[in-house]
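In the previous lecture we treated proteins in isolation. Real proteins rarely work alone, and many bind small molecules. This record shows how such a complex is specified: first the sequence, then the SMILES for zinc ion.
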Amino acid sequence: NKIEHVVGTGTGVLGDTKSINTTLRNGLYYLEDQTKYMYTQKGSTIKTNDFRNGTGTQTLMSDSDNVWNTTSQRAGVDAHYYAGKVYDYYYNTLGRNSYDGLGRTIISGVHYSTNYNNAFWNGTQMTYGDGDGTTFRPLSGALDVVAHELTHAVTDYSADLVYSYQSGALNESWSDAMASVIDSNDWLIGEDVYTPNTAGDALRSMSDPNAYGDPDHMSEYVNTSSDNGGVHTNSGIPNKAFYNFATAIGSRDVAGKVWYRALTSYMTSSTNFSGARSATLQACAALYGSNSSYYTALQNAWTAVGI
Ligand SMILES: Cc1cc(C(=O)NCC(F)(F)F)no1
Ligand SMILES: [Zn+2]
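The predicted 3D structure, ligand included, written as tokens:
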């Protein structure tokens, strides 16, 4: 039985229309993308499943005519489309073939649980809730959320930063930083899916972490055991350092390359904030030289947040 790549049309969470890479098998169309290098390399694909508002069984999303325009298909359309965009960024810009660097299949699941106000990487796949319609709308509807979650997978297969206290805040921050490079038209995180009834707000801000109650300087570090030692709060400090660096040099792409090289070449599971400063400076020196203007800007970016 023939299994062929076809291009479908889908409606996303925000009602926008987009082309999606699908697979035709036995007369049914599936959310399986066979267009990436990893497919030619080892048959790996990008697959998007439906939890049907449960938390156990998930099934590959299918459609009869390759026009994915029902309300319940929107979360899957965006999870699938944005996962492809994030794959493309890591492969084309950073030379990384999927999250493990070896072209491993990317799996997403949508409609996880009921009124679930979050998204997460569980060590094997990405998983997205629908939100409760007040705090969140379906979370795969934001490219920065998808990039944030897939970057957790990249981190796990590289530095593997322990998800608590300072290494955990770095784990969170690197996901926000890469998300801000991939979804590059603002310095907000989650703005497209956060509080659908409130315009202009977001889950976090890289440019002004204080806007959402997060610290932007070491003097404001929050000592807590909540949220694994405040990993989603204290991330504001390295997030601000990334913002300082990217804006000082005038390039999110260069900043992203330095951050990626630090994560994959110089950071380890126990790296703390001071170690992150050192790792990014080593990465910057390796890529551009320690006499480059980038290097000085990076020193200043960390100093400005008290690290
Ligand atoms: C508090 C808190 C924030 C997050 C968070 O950032 N989740 C990832 C996102 F992509 F769904 F936003 N989780 O708990
Ligand atoms: Zn996260």
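Summary for your notes: Residues 148, 152, 172, 175 surround zinc ion (ligand 2) (CB under 6 Å). The radius of gyration is 19 Å.
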